[in-house]
Amino acid sequence: MKLESRIYVGVGVFFVLVVVIYFLWSGDSGNSIFLVASALLGIMPGLYLGWWSRRMSPRPEDREDVSLEEIEGAVGYFPSYTIWPFVLGIGVFLTALAFVFGAWTAVIGMGFVISAAIGGTLSSKPKAMAHR
Q1: CA 112 to CA 10: how far, in whole Å?
Q2: 20 to 30 A Cα–Cα from 50, which one of 17, 103, 119, 130?
Q3: pLDDT single digits (tens) 37-94
Q4: Which residue in 56, 36, 32 sits closest to 44, CA to CA?
Q5: How far is it, in rounded angstroms, from Cα 17 to Cα 7?
Q6: CA-based end-to-end distance of the chain
Q7: Alpha helices for the chain (secondary structure H)
Q8: How high is the pLDDT of residue 108?
Q9: Please, are residues 54 and 71 in contact by the beta-carbon 8 Å criterion?
Q10: Which of 39, 1, 48, 5 minimizes the C-alpha distance to 21?
Q11: Distance between alpha carbon 60 and the CA centroid of its chain, in Å?
Q12: How far is the C-alpha of 111 from the C-alpha of 95, rounded, in Å?
């Protein structure tokens, strides 16, 4: 987790530099708040991951001399091709259109979202359980 911690803290430090330069050039404090929030969204998880990586034993990914066989874990079951992500996208799109056209599109969109959630859950069961 040391690499992940460094990446997050690096993103946070980048946004700290950006907010300092932005505030000095523009003098606008309103938009600087969003950049400060972006910096905190990088620094806070990075510090947490760094703190957590000191408390746990090192992972194989944190060593320099690691081989691919040491990192590889159990591979799970992934369903074959399915239409449900597309249906979910349509549902989210129709639900978002409710901000423009009214609540009736949210009702239709939520129908798509719920059916996609049910269909995706049922289609992702392993084939060994399909006979039940």
Answers
A1: 40
A2: 17
A3: 999 999 999 999 999 988 888 777 777 787 777 777 776 666 678 899 999 999 999 9
A4: 36
A5: 15
A6: 41
A7: 2-26, 29-55, 68-71, 84-96, 98-101, 103-123
A8: 95
A9: no
A10: 39
A11: 23
A12: 9
- Tokens standing for residue 53: 């990586």
C-alpha distances in angstroms, 78 versus 90, 97, 111, 115, 120? Answer: 22, 31, 25, 20, 12
The whole-model pTM stands at 0.54
Kindly state the tokens that stand for 125. 């069961």
Rounded Cα distance between 23 and 25, Å, is 6
- Tokens 């034993």 sit on residue: 57
Tell me if 9 sits within 8 A of 42, measured CB to CB: yes
Residue 132 has pLDDT above 60, yes or no: no
| CA-to-CA dists, residue 94 to 65, 104, 117, 127, angstroms | 50, 9, 15, 32
